Automatic annotation (TrEMBL):
SUPFAM superfamilies: (Trans)glycosidases. InterPro entries: GH, Glyco_hydro_17, Glyco_hydro_17_plant, X8. It comes from Kalanchoe fedtschenkoi. One of its GO terms (cellular component) is side of membrane. Keywords: Disulfide bond, Glycoprotein, Glycosidase, GPI-anchor, Hydrolase, Lipoprotein, Membrane, Plant defense, Signal. The keyword Nucleotide-binding does not apply. GO terms for biological process: carbohydrate metabolic process; defense response. It is found in: Cell membrane. It is a lipid-anchor; GPI-anchor. Belongs to the glycosyl hydrolase 17 family. Residues 1-26 form the signal peptide. One of its GO terms (molecular function) is glucan endo-1,3-beta-D-glucosidase activity. This is glucan endo-1,3-beta-D-glucosidase.
Amino acid sequence: MGMATRDLRILLATSLLLLLLGLCGGSTIGICYGRNADDLPTPDKVAQLVKLHNIKYLRIYDANIQVLKAFANTGVELMVGIPNLDLLPFSQFQTNADTWLKNNILPYYPATKITYITVGAEVTESPGNVSAMVVPAMQNILTALKKAGLSKKIKVSSTHSLGVLSRSFPPSAGAFNSKHASFLRPLLEFLAENESPFMVNIYPYYAYQDSPSNVTLDYALFESSSEVIDPNTGLLYTNMFDAQIDAIYFALSGVNFRTIKVMVTETGWPTKGSPKETAATPDNAQTYNTNLIRHVINDTGTPAKPGEGLDVYIFSLFNENRKPGMESERNWGLFYPDQTSVYNLDLTGKGALDVGDDANGTSLNGTTWCIAKSTASETDLTNAINWACGPGNVDCSAVQPSQPCYEPDNLVSHASFIFNSYYQQNGATDVACSFGGAGVKVNKNPSYDNCLYLTSGSKKAAATNVTTPSSFNSTASSAPNMSMAWIFSIQLLSFFSLFI
């Protein structure tokens, strides 16, 4: 092989690898972990719950040491907040920022993956003149990170409410409120210079709640069959989320900061509210968050930014009983404090059914089961079993010695029975079979001898002789769905391997 030909092929392979890495970037979904409650599980149990549901990105609102310790070696990426009450000391003295980083971040990094530090939260909504302290505090935090050699690995920003805009409709008229100009100009310069995102909290729920005559519920829930036209651009909007995101982008463009990306640090929908909050229901929350996740992970982008990746954090992990305000304020959680689901939510965005070997991925009567992957590590299976038999509230007595599901006495067999029990008790959804990637849905009944696996709607596993019906003789479903981008990535790897 000639040197020039080999160089060309290596260059091609490298280019394809870069393309592959770009495809694997994409949009991400994270969850906000607020702790304004007196009945939440301990941080170590929360870390188990987060891993069980394969949540990879988490926002926390302060640098709580127990939380940071709990997420060590989990692979979960944390966004850590500095509360508004701490802005004054951080803005006044560099030594305060240095000390905070030394005591609250460095001892836990990199075992605990910290990727963002948010300095202040929605400061334009806070009483007093705290906004003037934000950028000086951000500068001091950045300087502290530079001293530690982490300024390229941990980004610094601040979160905002949509109230930072004076206009948001139509999206092309999006503009920042002039009364915040003295705060926003240096903030945007900081973000642009350091390639940090503009972080905003987006809540279509409040837009609908405040003005139901102007905003339809379907439009707020990503369910609208009609389109809203921006008269200035001709862009068509089918949901309020996109319209609000584009209003931010147009506002940034209006002040000549077109390179700054937008990140949504809070969005969601409440499941319960006061009598006047009629839209705060579990069904609406499930609809909003399900459609949101699918919209985001498909890299749909927005009408003004088609195909643009967008990182979004859903509020929130738990209901928080100490939050002040209306009833809805305490009911945004995906989970109750006992770690059971408030409603079923597929965090993968891939829908309710896996694609199996047959036409619909289920057995003939629509039943699916959840079992442990034979390739799962012993550690992952053990951790999942410990969680399911504890906080997961699964009755694991059937796999104890002398009980009907004890034999065969191995980890995969025991985990399969336990995984399926949790899966069926929690709505038989994809997310209830994730177990951090250790679970897989099948359409063949795993029951055997006297060990009867739960099915949807049954109350508990029965210890009776089971004859597997012939209708369950189809092969097990395949591993969890892969996105088209990932499938294409594998094809690319196979392709460029030919050239090396």
